[in-house]
Structures are given as structure tokens and as C-alpha cells.
Amino acid sequence: MSSTAVASGKVEYTDSENRNALIAVKAHLIAGLSVFLLMMLGGLAMRAAQGTWIEIGVDLFYQIMTVHGVGVVGAAVIASTGVQWHFLRKYVRLSNAIFWTNFFIFLTGVVMILGSIFLGGYGGAWTFLYPLPAISMGAWSTGAAAVFQLGVLIIGVGLLILYLDFGRAILARYGSLARALGLTMLFGKEPVDPAHPKAVVASTMVLIVNFLGIAAGAVVLVMGLINLYNPEFQPDAMLMKNLIYFFGHVIINATIYASVIAVYELLPRYTGRPWKTNKVFLAAWFAIVFMVMGVYPHHLLMDFPMPAWAMIAAQVLSFGSGIPVLVVTGYGALMLVYRSGIKWTTTTKLLFLSMFGWAAGVIPAILDAMVTINRVFHNTLWVPGHFHFYLLLGLLPMIIGFTYYLAGEGDRNEQPKATDSLGFYAYLIGGFMTSMVFLASGANSIPRRWAVHMEEWVTFAQVGTIAAALVVLGTLLFTLRAIFILPGAANPR
Fold first, then answer.
1. How far separated are the first and last CA of the chain, in Å rounded?
2. Residue 42's closest CA among 70, 75, 64, 62?
3. Which of 112-121, 204-213, 417-426 has the weakest average pLDDT?
4. DSSP code of 235?
5. Helix H segments across 273-410?
6. Secondary structure (3-state) at 380
7. pLDDT at 56 exceeding the cut of 80
């Protein structure tokens, strides 16, 4: 047997280790979905306020906007990490203790962030863009800004510890990150192993980009904290913005690359067809490593001091970023499902929906990466339209679909319950409407991050409120399923 085939085998754990691991994964999913639900309620409140259906003070609006942004990113990270860890540990030996450690570090950071916002009044957005945290004009204290940034920093430290364990385990099994990523097969140094785990390829890519992204975030957070208490220390604003957006763009994008492992692992089970690894797949994931890290300057196209080469590279990479998704994952999922006789349970519908949401969600982002469009659209609601599409219809269906699978739906020969069907269609219609209303608002030049809307913008916000209510209804039903059924579910076959 070849060394590649040996490395593709699964790791054996004790029953106790498996039970502990399953509990840990369920805790990550329940925490992630619960935070998502709370953040959606905040989003609903903001849209209703913009639509003049409720009144929210301006200070409170920006506090909700801040917690909504950081909370969605945090929920995406913790839930997608649960998905990734569950499947990766089948192929490499991961530490349950470190997984739990990261979880409790995450919760500590969350408490600090919530305190800084709702007790300290911090409302400077989740991007903590320098020098805004230090110049609040009395809206929040220096301490509140510091606690917020410390909370984000602590969460990052926990993730770095977890990724060190990922790296240790992958190196112990495969010898190098290049081999785990499949580069030895891609470049002909080893024969292609069709069974080489996609979970290992995707996890290696996430490890590389997120380790660098979080490290950059840690650097900029430390510099921001120094500036808060030593105003004479004034780092270059353009450098700070680059580090912040590199960190932010990488970490939120990496969540979907971690979660798509559920699609790779589960669709073959439901279709009864293998999803083989080949050179096209490996080349796509190798390209994704550079694309995810290199596209962030498309958020800085209006920052004229930026080097021209960085802007050009960001545009080219942005235009190409959808190709690996469409060619490898989207097309692969279609071919796997086509004439397979797949049973359309809630799990399979969510996983398949995620392919549409991911593939279609990149299109508004590619458009926004064009300078002629960016100069008009980037500071409008077009941008929330893009990432709500990407997250609501791409990322979250992967996570929720995996949750349903873990709750045992795939092991029972039954039709989806009425509440599951209601949840799915309310979520689907609401998520699509929410995204389209944001995009239409952006196309009509309605700015983002405005607490109060002009009269001609109110109708858009009111339709968006109805759409957000449908999303909340669907997510509520999904989350209740997770809270009440997931804890007692056995490890699925």
C-alpha cells in the first residue's frame, strides 16, 4: 500500500474520547446558532428602526450595529470550527482538551465584548478602525474601547492555540502542510489518491490563512491598545487599515471554507456516490490559499495612498475568486446529486442550498470589486447585500445542515417535520429577500451604517424588516431543534 493511501486512513479513538468530542462539537453548534439568532434579532431591530416602525436611540443603534457585526463573525467562527474539528479529527489526532480550552476562551472574550458595548457604550463597529476607538467624543470611554479590543484579542489567542494543535496533528500524520494540501500529488511527486480527505485539504488551507490573518489581527489590536493609553504612539493609519481588513476579510471568509467540509463529507453519504479527489480539486484549493489572503484590498479601492499593484492584484484575484467555488465545489455537488435518487430531507436541502448561496453570493462581491462600480456602491447597502447573501444562504445552511445531520435526521427514514419545512422555507425566502433588498438599496444609493433613513429610503427598510422577520422565524425553529434534540442525539453512523 502506498504512503499516500496509508495517510488517507481514519484515526481510532476510545469511546470516552468520542463521547467527549461529540459533546464539544454540539456545544460549539448550540453556542454558534444561539448567537446567530440573537444577532438576527438585533439586525431585525435595526431594520425596523430604519423603517420607522420602532424607535431606537442613535447611540443604542450603533451599539447594536457593533455587536451585530462582531457577534455574527464570532458565531460563524465558533460554529464553523465545530464543523471542521468534527471531520478533521477523523483523519488526524486532535486534542479534546485544547478544543474545549478554545471554547471557554471564546466565551470569556464574548463576555468582555458584551460588557464593553452594553455597559461601556462602545459603538465603533466590529472593525475597530483606527483611530476611531480613541476619538469617541464622549460616546464611550477609553476603558470600554480597550475591553472591546482585548475581548477580540483573547478570542484570537484561543483560536491560535487551536490552530497550533491543528498544525501539530496534520504534521504528525502527513509530514508537511504541502503534503496535506495535496501539493505532492498536484505536482506529480506522488500518485493522486482519490481518497485523500477533502477535510484535510480544506483544514490545511484554513489553518494557513487563518493563522496569518489572526496573527495580523493580534498585531493591530496590540498597537490599537497602546494608542489608547499612549496617544503619542501614532501608527500609520493606512498600515492599520490594511492589517484590520486583512484580518477581518480572512477570518470571515475562512468560516465558509471550514464549513464546506460538511458538504464534502455528507453529500456522498446521501447520494451513495464517492466524491473523489483529483488534480483539479487540489489545484483549486491551492489557488484559494492565495485568493483568500490577496483579495482584501478590494475594500480599500477608494484609499488613494494604496499602491497601484495591490489594487490591481486585488481586482484580478477578486474576479477569479469565484472560479474554484463554481468549478470544483458547485459543479462537483451538482454532478454528485444528478440522478442519484437523493432523499430531500432538511439536511440535504440545506446542504444543497448552501452551494447556491456560496456560488451566487460571490457575484455581488465581484461586481463591487470593479473600480467603476465600487466608487458608487461601496459605501452603500450593496455591501451588506453581498455578505448577507453569502452568509445567510451559503455559510449558515452548511452549519445548520450539519446540525440536523448530527441530530440524527439522516438515520431516520421519515419525512421532514412540518416545523422543519416551515423553518426551511421561511429561512430561504427571508434570506433571499433580505439580500435582495440590501442590494436594491445599494443600487439606489442608500448608504450603509446610517441609523436614521431619509423618507425615500424608508420603504426599502420596511420590506427589509419583513424579510428579516422571516429569517428570524426560520433560525428560531432551527435553533430550538438544536437546543432540545441535539444534546441527546447519538453519534450518527
1. 27
2. 64
3. 417-426
4. -
5. 279-294, 308-320, 322-324, 331-337, 346-368, 371-377, 382-390, 396-406
6. strand
7. yes
Instruction: Tell me the domains of the chain and their CATH numbers.
Output: 3-488 (1.20.210.10)
Q: Report DSSP letters for 182-226, one per residue.
A: THHHHTTSS---TTS-HHHHHHHHHHHHHHHHHHHHHHHHHHHHH
Beta bridge partners of 324: none
Burial 436-459 (b: 16+ CB within 10 A, else e): bbbbbbbeeebebeebebeeebee
Q: What is the pLDDT of residues 447-492, one digit of tens each?
A: 999 999 999 999 999 999 999 999 999 999 999 988 988 888 877 7
Work out the number of other CB atoms within 10 angstroms of the CB of residue 324: 19
Q: Tell me if 416 sits within 8 A of 476, measured CB to CB.
A: no
**Cell, residue 424:** 426551511
Q: Residue 23 pLDDT > 80, yes or no?
A: yes
Distance of CA 94 to the CA centre of its chain: 22
User: Residue 67's closest CA among 139, 136, 148, 130?
Assistant: 148
pLDDT of 367-422, one tens digit each?
A: 888 888 888 898 999 999 999 999 999 999 999 999 999 988 755 555 667 889 99
Q: CA 44 to CA 48: how far, in whole Å?
A: 6
Nine-digit cell at 36?
Answer: 446567530
* Residue 139, SS3 per DSSP: coil
Q: Give the span between the Cα atoms of 387 and 255, in whole angstroms.
A: 13
Q: What is the mean pLDDT of the chain?
A: 92
Confidence check: pLDDT of 3 > 60: no
pTM for the whole structure? 0.94
Nearest CA-CA partner of 427 in 460, 386, 391, 463: 391
Lookup: cell for 467: 424579510
Assess contact for 76 and 253: CB atoms under 8 A.
no
Cα 169 to Cα 165: distance, rounded to the nearest angstrom: 6
> Nearest-CA neighbor of 447 among 373, 359, 383, 365?
383
